[in-house]
Amino acid sequence: MFHHVRAALMIFLFAGMAWLGGFLSSEGMGQDKDKKAKGMPPQPLFCSPLAIEVGKANKVIVRGLRLEKLTNIIIHDPKCTGRVLSTGKKVGLPNNQMKVEVVGDCEAEIEITLPKDFVGGTVAFSLSNADGEGTRAVCLVKDEAPIVAEKEPNDGFKQAQKLEVGQVVEGAISRGQDVDVYQISLSGKKTYLFNLQALRAGSPLDPILTLHDTQGRTIETGEPSSLDRDPWIRFTPKQDTLVYLSVQDAHDQGAPFFLYRLAITAER
């Protein structure tokens, strides 16, 4: 009989321990769910357009994560103001190969106003919701250089879009395996700088910038900037010449929001 009583006690003890372990586990899972549910502020990734103007109110589309219930915009410059025009809406991914943490799954519309005397190449902002203020994003700020819009088709040397020194072209690698090609006439013995902006503004484009001669041969491939990995090329032709610049994504991906700006300047 003693053995039967001891066996019953052991069964009761093990059952109690199993119940307690399950209870604690469920409590822990519940706390994990609460932690995941809380503390999830918005995360803006990049803007369209990439660059905004001084002396005016700029309407900007922000793409990112958790933008559905925005409460405020914080501009990290006391001279600038902003407001949320429309809270975010869910948007799809162009293809399954793109990572949502890189391209986002939500778009919202904001307005940023810069004074005429604003000085600087970027303006930073963040967004907030009921869970608090999120991470910062930046908009580039346009200078006085004339802006040219990219025009398709410009996928090859025969279809290259003509540009002039001093211009800034605003374009997009709009689909997978897209290549944008530009033609520029240069004077001999002058030094030129070709500077591409994308990653510094959060664009998902991982750009490759290449300089070609009239035969399509590579003269130089852009060096990544030490600050943001955006490529640039400095080139001094020996004589007057025609060159081509090509822009493409390093992973052959693309979408209308794979935005970039390409500035062509002559050094003095």
Short note summarizing the structure:
This protein is mainly β and 268 residues long. It has two helices and 19 strands.
Structure report:
With 268 residues, the chain is mostly beta strands. The protein folds into 2 domains: 99 residues, Immunoglobulins (Immunoglobulin-like, Sandwich); 120 residues, Jelly Rolls, CATH 2.60.120.380. Helices cover 15% and strands 44% of the residues. The chain is built from 2 helices and 19 strands. It has a 6-stranded mixed beta sheet with strand order 9-11-19-13-17-16, with no helix packed on it. Strands 10-12-18-14-15 form a 5-stranded mixed beta sheet, with no helix packed on it. The protein has a 4-stranded antiparallel beta sheet with strand order 1-3-6-5. Strand 14 and strand 15 form a beta hairpin. The longest helix has 36 residues. The radius of gyration is 27 Å and the shape is globular.
| Main sheet characteristics | 6 strands, mixed
Which structural class do the helices and strands define? mainly beta
Uncertain runs with pLDDT below 50, 5 residues or more?
Answer: 1-5, 7-20, 29-37
Q: Give the beta-strand count.
A: 19
Shape: globular
- Could you please say which CATH topology of the largest domain applies here? Jelly Rolls
CATH architecture group name of the largest domain: Sandwich
Beta-strand percentage range: 35-45%
At the first level of CATH, the class of the largest domain is Mainly Beta
Count of helices?
2
Number of domains: 2
Q: What brief labels describe this structure?
A:
single chain, 268 residues, mainly beta, 6-stranded mixed beta sheet, 5-stranded mixed beta sheet, globular
